[in-house]
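User: Reviewer 2 asked us to show a designed sequence for the structure in our supplementary figure. I'm pasting the structure tokens here. Could you produce the per-position amino acids so we can include them in the response letter?
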């Protein structure tokens, strides 16, 4: 069995994935994470930073994500 890659992804890339079609490469990374193509290496501080950034008003406006979708988005990183 082939070992999965362990990957650290910058917060900006992960948050950019919430912009969907506006950010195709970050979205591909996010989809690969959701499909468990790699193991996300993170920390509580990084998860907190993602939560802070994804809940900023300009990010909410650009991503058009509801509070429930933003929570689900963050939960993907926690479950990693």
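Assistant: Here is a per-position design you can include in the supplement:
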């Amino acid at each position: 069995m082939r070992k999965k890659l362990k990957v650290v992804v910058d917060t900006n890339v992960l948050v950019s994935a919430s912009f969907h079609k506006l950010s195709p490469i970050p979205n591909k990374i996010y989809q690969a994470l959701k499909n468990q193509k790699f193991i996300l290496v993170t920390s509580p501080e990084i998860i907190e930073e993602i939560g802070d950034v994804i809940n900023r008003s300009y990010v909410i406006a650009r991503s058009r994500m509801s509070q429930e979708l933003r929570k689900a988005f963050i939960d993907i990183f926690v479950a990693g």
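For the response letter, you might also mention the following. The chain is about 60% helix and 5% strand. The beta strands are 6-7, 39-40.
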